[in-house]
Amino acid sequence: MPIPDIPSLIFPTSGSINQLIPTSFVWEKIDKADSYNLQISKDYEFTEMLYYKTGIVRTSIIVKGLDNDKTYYWKVSATNAKGTSEYSQVWSFTTEPEKILYHQYEYRVTATPNLVIPQILENERLVKLAIEHSQQWPFRVMYVWVIEKKK
User: Fold this and answer.
1) Domain boundaries along the sequence of the chain
2) Which of 10, 43, 64, 71 is a plausible cystine mate for 26, CB 3.0–4.6 Å?
3) 9-95 maps to which CATH number?
4) Strands (E), 42-123
């Protein structure tokens, strides 16, 4: 049995942005492989190794602990009893920006609620405005804004 072929990467795709944290990594199955090795780095040359795992028996893994709004590089190799393949090509991706809960207000509603909208700065954007309300007396309405920094 020869050493395994080099795996092809599937997800996250190279150059992708807004990847969720924790992040899922997926690569192709190699017939002659018993396990896989995953490396994640902060730089293309892998001098700042962030994550290194050997002996992965599946073709996917979920990695926790990545930072928001950062670019990472990843690659995979395959292993069997004869040896380890070369690493795959290097792909990069960027994680999602950090979401910040900016304002939360709760009002007891007797007539029309008094809504105060927060000021959104130039380097921010509104991601979500949620309005929740109760169905019973005393009626309550809660407004939640989620604002994130623009890139």
Assistant:
1) 9-95, 100-149
2) 10
3) 2.60.40.10
4) 49-56, 60-63, 71-80, 83-84, 91-95, 100-108
